[in-house]
Write a structure and sequence with these properties.
Blueprint (H helix, E strand, L loop, with lengths): L10 H12 L5 H14 L4 H7 L5 H14 L5 H7 L5 H13 L2 H14 L3 H15 L8 H8 L3 H19 L3
């Protein structure tokens, strides 16, 4: 049976709150220590980290993406793909690195995001970074048309169909 605090919530939430607050610190060593402790929680640390991806402070969003990269839990894939459209280039890059670490689940979520928001220049740039990693592998050849469309003149128009085709390939056969 899980312990609960007086309000009936999991006692684990009491453990996360100081760590999440430490991610707001101006002290880099303090933030790094908190991130390390959240990483050590593994899957149990996902929920507070997913919430941190929407924090108003760029540094907190970056710390959350960096921690999620190390945890590498596919449950974070959708939120990380959304973070590829963050206003901060650092957060976008780190979210992309986390998606790469997730493997084909990360690539799949990037393709789904391109179906929804191919009109976002920042998302397309981050998606290009992620998909470029996978296309280097023999099993990633099917992603080349997506990269070509991302590099083309009208990605908002041409990328969704290429992404849908690549998703179909992933669902049908998975990477070779």
């Amino acid at each position: 049976m899980k312990k609960t605090n007086g309000s009936g919530e999991n006692a684990a939430a009491d453990e996360y709150e100081p760590l999440v607050q430490a991610l707001h610190s101006k002290s880099a060593p303090e933030r790094e220590e908190a991130r390390g402790k959240l990483i050590a929680l593994g899957h149990a640390g996902l929920i507070p980290l997913l919430h941190c991806l929407n924090d108003s402070h760029e540094q907190v969003r970056w710390e959350a993406a960096k921690a999620l990269e190390q945890i590498a839990d596919p449950a974070a894939a959708e939120a990380l793909a959304e973070a590829m459209d963050d206003e901060s280039a650092g957060v976008r890059w780190t979210a992309g690195e986390a998606l790469i670490r997730l493997g084909w689940e990360g690539a799949k979520q990037v393709l789904v995001s391109l179906l929804r928001k191919s009109d976002s220049t920042s998302l397309c740039t981050a998606a290009h970074h992620v998909l470029s990693h996978f296309v280097r592998h023999k099993d990633g050849e099917f992603l080349k048309p997506v990269l070509q469309r991302l590099e083309g003149p009208e990605p908002a128009v041409s990328v969704p169909l290429a992404a849908l085709t690549a998703l179909g390939h992933l669902r049908k056969s998975g990477p070779a």
